Amino acid sequence: MTVIRTRVAIVGAGPAGLLLSHLLADAGIESVIVDSRTREQIETTIRAGILEQGTVDLLVASGASTRVLTDGNRHDGIELRFAGEGHRIDFPSLTGRSVWLYPQHEVLKDLVATRLAAGQDLRFGVRVDAVDDAASDRPRVIGVDADGQRVEIEAEFVVGADGSRSVVRQTLGGSAAGSFREYPFAWFGILCEAPPSSEELIYSNSDAGFALISQRSSTVQRMYFQCDPEADPDALSEAQIWDELQARVPGTTLHEGPIFQRDVLRFRSFVAGELRRGRVALIGDAAHTVPPTGAKGMNLAVADVVLLDIALRALLLSGDEGPIDAFAETAARRIWKAQHFSWWMTSMLHRTPDASDFDRRRQLGELRSIIDSDAGRTYLAEAYTGWPFETRLG
Ligand code: DHB
User: Which residues form the FAD-binding domain (predicted)?
Assistant: First the structure.
C-alpha cells in the first residue's frame, strides 16, 4: 500500500481541482491531486466553450493560462432570436464586461501543463473508493492506483472536485442528497468542419424548438439543438441534423460541413445538500450541476475555487476557521443565482413538449420583456458575463 501525506488532498483533475492546486501552491500550500481518468481522457472530453470575464482574468493573473488571450476569442455580445427576429445583447455597454470563447478542454490542457511544470503531484488512473475520518482533522482518501495498488492520502483537508458522480459527496450525507430537477429535453450537440455561420453566438427560440449556434475556431463549429433526452445520437443522418438545425434558426443560412462528433447532453439542475462537512468540501460539478444554457458550469466551479482558496489559506496558514465556516453559505449564494439563471435561460428558450398556446405566448412575452428593457438586457448580460468574485470570506 502507498501512503501519501500532504496538506490538501484533491479528488478530481478537472478545472476545479487543478485550478485550486494552482492557487494553493501560490500560497505555499502543497496538495496531491488524483483522478480516475487518464490524462488523455481529461484533455479530450468535449465540454462548453464560454468563459466569464472573471474566469479569464483569474486564469491570466494567476499564470494558469495565458493562451486564452491568444487562442481564445473575446465575445462582446450574443444574439437572442425569437419570432423570426434577432436581438443583440451588447455586454460591454451594459456591464463593462465580456466573455471569451475558449473550450474547456483547452483550459484543461493549460492547467495540466502548468501544474506538471510546477512539480504538482498529479496522479491519473486512481480510483477513489472512500474518504475516511472525515470528521477528524486528518481525513484520509482511500483508493486504488493504476497498477491496482491500494493508495491512502492523509491530509489536513479533502476536496471533492470529482464531478457530478462524486464519490467524495457520499461522505457528506449521501451522493443523492440535495435539491434537483430534471428537464423533458436534452441537447443534440455536434462539432463540424465549417466556417462560422454568425459572428456571435445565436440562442434561438423557434417553433421547431431551441438551437444554439456556437463556435470553436475559424474552421470548427459547435452547434446544438433541443432533442428528446432518449434520442440516439447515431440515429440521424448528417442531412437530417442540418435540417433540424436549419429549421430552428430561420433567417440564417448555416454553413454546413462534415460532422465529426455528435453527442446527446442530458439536463439536470442539482445542488448537494451539504457543501462542506468538517474537513471535507465539495466544489464544481461534485457540488452542483446546471443545465448548459448560458454556460455557467465551469465558471461556477471557478467561483467555488476562489472561495475555497481563501478559506484554506486562512485555515492552513493561520488556523483561522472563520472563512471555512462561512464557505458553504457564501458559495451557495452564487450557486443558487447561477441555478436560477441557467434554469431561466433554459425555460425561456426551449419548447416544453406539453406547452399550451398560453405557455408559448407567455414565453415570447418574457423574451420581449428582456430585449425591450435596459433592466432586462442588463440582468442577462450581468449573469452571462458573470457576477464579480468574492474577495473575502467570513
Ligand atoms: C457553448 C455551450 C453553452 O452551453 C453555451 O451556453 C454557450 C456555448 C459551447 O459549447 O460553445
Answer: 5-341
